[in-house]
């Protein structure tokens, strides 16, 4: 049975999610972005129905409504939630698929509950590749609301691997508890990602300075053939070397962070959990902003590969 959902925010992630839903299902999507040209492009390319404003989006949805937000975390998300709260009705639902802090989710859920509006947080991983391979989604929220959202989550998710079906069934997403749980799992996911990226970057930095004339792309490709360090990040490293060259010299080493590594460390400190690898990897990103070397050029390249994050070109690039 076809479902209906509104989408707010049609950038790198949101636009691709709308495209995947419309390409792979019969679900009805009403799409809105503050840039009217973006709405026109996405609607024209995907078959989604465009909206001129948040109010117009709400009017075009049948009750009980579901509205999925994909805008930057922090004030942009909070402002959007606040505006929607004044437009939606009892029985409607707001879904935050961005990178919100889990404590903010709990506060939003409590306030919206007073108005009878459900709040579901969806920690979303997959970056710009999600359109083709699907999104790994970590979900928090009331069980009834998540069940209603499930048809949308099912089409956005990747196919599950054999070993995961016992835990997840045929779904490539998981419900982990009340509002906030999804973004909490995604927060720790990103902290781990920081450490993995740092380890790859340091290893390839050693190759860059070693006595041998090594082909970094060839090494990364080889390591994905049965090695214990094979991974999607390693595949992306190979792509980065092929696109940017063996030394990544065209890139600046400046490496940004979304805040989730910081939140992971803050929560670990509050719970007396030692996180030396994650903490050191965050500090390395800080260091990169003044002293970008090969390690940091590779970190910047990997962020660009999986998330489409902007990079800075070096003076030579």
Binned, the helix content reads: 40-55%
Please state the structural category. Answer: alpha/beta
Report low-confidence residues grouped into runs of 5 or more.
Answer: none
User: Could you tell me how far the N terminus lies from the C terminus, measured between alpha carbons in angstroms?
Assistant: 51 Å
> What is the makeup of the main sheet?
8 strands, mixed
Q: Name the helix and strand elements from N-terminus to C-terminus, one letter apiece.
A: EHEHEHEHEHEHEHHEHHHHHH
Tell me the Rg in angstroms: 21 Å
Textual characterization of the structure:
With 317 residues, the protein is an alpha/beta fold. The chain contains 14 helices and 8 strands. Strand 1, helix 1 and strand 2 (28-32) form a beta-alpha-beta unit. The longest helix has 29 residues, at 181-209.
Give the helix/strand layout.
Blueprint: E1 4-8, H1 12-24, E2 28-32, H2 36-46, E3 49-50, H3 54-60, E4 66-69, H4 75-85, E5 93-96, H5 102-114, E6 118-125, H6 130-133, E7 136-140, H7 143-156, H8 165-168, E8 173-177, H9 181-209, H10 216-223, H11 232-244, H12 260-270, H13 276-288, H14 294-307
Parallel strand pairs: 1-2, 1-4, 2-3, 4-5, 5-6, 7-8
Antiparallel strand pairs: 6-7
What's the short version?
It is built from 14 helices and eight strands. With 317 residues, it is α/β, with parallel strands linked by helices. An eight-stranded mixed β-sheet has the order 3-2-1-4-5-6-7-8, sandwiched between helices.
Provide keyphrases for this structure.
317 residues; alpha/beta; eight-stranded mixed beta sheet
